[in-house]
Design a protein that fits this description.
3-stranded antiparallel beta sheet
Length: 166
């Protein structure tokens, strides 16, 4: 069954679920790009915005990581950081620690799910333990050792029970 490109675009825009999933697969084959000549790949990369190059490899992430701050809204930065820990992405987590450690160290008495943490680093440690993010936890522990912060951070949590009264 051969469907031309215009029909694929029409079906994707209309949102027919069964056909949409089947048709999206050919667009996701990145291996085909490796078969292209090097000059053509470089020409294609020249048309891509820097914000899409960030997530291609480590080289581009290091080169354009300053754009992440602009891409992630201030209100969603904590969600972004928690998502990185859940996915156990140690490289991105280490870059964020290097860039934003001063801002993160200023957060005191952080509350998450009725637990108050003395600071944000205590929360990140506990969150990485709960999500089994061993790589991120090791990066955080090494970073805190270099910074000279105390041990047994997981014991410094305070439970808060918030009850509503009518």
């Amino acid at each position: 069954m051969q469907i031309d490109l215009l029909e694929k675009v029409d079906l994707l825009e209309k949102g027919q679920p069964k056909k949409r999933e089947a048709l999206a697969q050919p667009f996701l084959k990145v291996e085909k790009v490796l078969e292209l000549p090097g000059e053509l790949v470089m020409m294609i990369k020249s048309y891509l915005p820097k914000s899409s190059l960030i997530f291609l490899n480590k080289y581009y992430y290091k080169k354009y990581h300053y754009l992440v701050k602009k891409m992630v809204d201030k209100n969603n930065f904590e969600n972004y950081l928690r998502d990185i820990i859940r996915r156990d992405n140690e490289f991105v987590f280490s870059q964020i620690l290097l860039d934003f450690h001063k801002n993160l160290s200023r957060i005191k008495n952080y509350v998450y799910k009725n637990i108050m943490y003395k600071n944000y680093f205590y929360f990140l440690t506990d969150y990485s333990i709960k999500n089994s993010s061993i790589k991120c936890r090791n990066v955080l522990n090494e970073f805190l050792k270099v910074q000279g912060l105390c041990q047994n951070r997981h014991k410094k949590n305070t439970f808060i029970h918030i009850r509503w009264k009518h």
